[in-house]
Amino acid sequence: MLTERNNVICISDEAHRSQVNLDQQLKLTEDGVERKYGFAKYLHDSLPNATYVGFTGTSIDATIEVFGKVVDSYTMTESVKDGITVNLVYEGRAAKVNLDQDKVKEIEEYYGNCVREGANEYQIEESQKAVAHLDVIIGVPDRLSAVAHDFIKHYENIVTEGATVAGKTMFCANRDIAYALYKFIIELRPEWAEKKQCEEGIELSEKEKKELKPIEKIKMVMTRNKDDLKDLYDMLGTKEDRKEIDCQFKQVKSNFKIAILVDMWLTGFDVPCLDTIYIDKPIQQHTLIQTISRVNRVYEGKDKGLIVDYIGIKNNMNSALAKYTNFESEEFEEIGQSVTIVKDQLEVLAQMFHNFNSNDFFNGTPKEQLDCLNRAVEYVQLTEELELRFMAAVKRMKQAFNLCSSSDELTDNDKDYIHFYIAVRSILFKLTKGTAPDISQMNARVRKLIEEAIITDGFEEIFSIDSDVEKITVDIFSEEYLNKIAKIKLPNTKIKILQKLLSQATDEFKKVNKIKGVEFADRLKKVVDDYNNRRKDESYATEILDDVAEQLAKLLEELKNEKNSFMGMGIDFE
Questions:
Q1: What are phi and psi of 187, to 5 degrees?
Q2: 120, 71 in Cβ contact below 8 A?
Q3: Is the dihedral of CA 433, 435, 440, 442 positive or negative?
Q4: Residue 485, number of CB atoms within 10 A of its CB
């Protein structure tokens, strides 16, 4: 007894573990019956009249029994709306790798009888026996081979399509199965076991060169067991080794991308850029919530967290969400919803392009494909309203495609059109904003087309201008440069380039002649406003477009003359 006072408040964090074990536990020994109690019992005996407040991310039945009704809750939905976490998306792939559907039913039955957290020792022991029985079912070599093949295909697909921000992923399995699966994967991708600092083509700062250690792309992360096979025991390393592995996985550019786990890292381990988790083991309800929450942290470029299910946890996950998170319908998406969004946006984009012949892009020579891309960029700029609708539709399509790029419901034809629209948007985005979206989002074929398209039409200088860093790095007033722009046959594209160049040039000029710089900026704005207003008329003639381009070119010429006016005064530029 510490005190009988009733104006004591006892606050417990993680109020679902030792904070709720009030029950007596009997243990039979050779000397007789031994009675044991948990920490919570002694705490409540010490402060019998205190008010107990418990915080937990995953409350269990015992939490309510000990602490009373929920005073306040913060749901996953609220967290997503507040920008604290990203939404979760579920993709079930159990049917692709479970060769015997009777075994799938057996797994479902196991989940139906899954022991809730807080059960007594006997129930936990029975649960462990059930899990061991389940390992026999899911650890069949043929099935694990199928899982390995499907995982590699799925992982490489999301990386190729730019559907993962850093390629970081976790694969969760039981101990013996995890090692067997690891060996299957390495047999198929031996290069993943080679130690490197980072992937090829990645540039490192001096600090990163010191921090990043040579490491395998895929590693097993678990504590050593004295009964482990020698190869496994050596691979898992010491406690110090595991600390270094922890640090490397959290480094975005590290070569270490795939962590195969048993229990470590599944709770309280935050890697914001981690966006995909594969699950192939039975996980009890409140641990399941913590496990899938590894992928809901906010990170730049990350729209959703993807859960890929190889064992059939969907029903268990839904009940866990309902029990532990005040589940609301929008908290959890199915991968099928993303497929629907992609197909809907493809239909919308097809309607936009119904007057455009894109046949050359899919069937033409490389040069014809490049020309088709550029014509498509010009076509989209027909009116401002069409341009805005197109950009928004492709963005929405791409975000959804990031989550379902491995779906069998999307045909090769669908994917060809997806990459076509993304390529058009990327070029237009570059013309408009000066900084392109991550080109890794496009497959190698489209990336090559864009690079060649830029060179073919003399855009390379325009595309190399970084509006935030280097500003103008070439002499845009040179005759050679102006002649290149004059040769561009696509009027809307030419206008965009001139507009971008003038905007940057006037910003630079304001630094040395504020008054004249502002005057040129105002004149530019008037020409651009007139251009945008006229574009709303779909019959907007090429002659008028040429007139706008001429006005912009004239403005550029005047700016050049104003900038060179010092020569006639017999003074230098400064």
A1: -65, -35
A2: no
A3: positive
A4: 20
Give the mean pLDDT of the chain. Answer: 79
Residue 173: its H or E element: strand 169-173
Question: What is the CB neighbour count within 10 angstroms for residue 185?
Answer: 23
Whether 222 contacts 262, CB under 8 Å: yes
CA max distance for the chain: 110
Q: Which residues contact 425 (CB under 8 A, 6 or more apart)?
A: 390, 391, 394, 395, 398, 437
| Strands 32-36 and 258-261, bridge-based pairing | unpaired
Instruction: Say what the pTM is.
Output: 0.69
Determine which helix (DSSP H) or strand (DSSP E) holds 54, and give its type and residue range: strand 51-54
For the chain, the first-to-last Cα distance in angstroms comes to 83
* Overall average pLDDT of the 39-47 stretch: 90
Please give the structure tokens belonging to residue 422. 């993304």
CA atoms of 61 and 24, how far apart (whole Å): 17
Residues 279 and 240 sit within 8 Å (Cβ to Cβ): no
State mean pLDDT over 144-154: 92
CA gap 171, 279 in Å, rounded: 6
Residue 184 binned pLDDT confidence (cut-offs 50, 70, 90): very high
**If you average pLDDT over residues 224-236, what whole number do you get?**
84
303-207-275 Cα angle (round to 5):
15
Structure tokens at 337: 């919803």
Strand partners, 170: 259, 277
> CB 377: neighbour CB atoms within 10 A?
23
Alpha helices per DSSP H over 457-564: 460-464, 479-486, 491-510, 514-535, 542-563
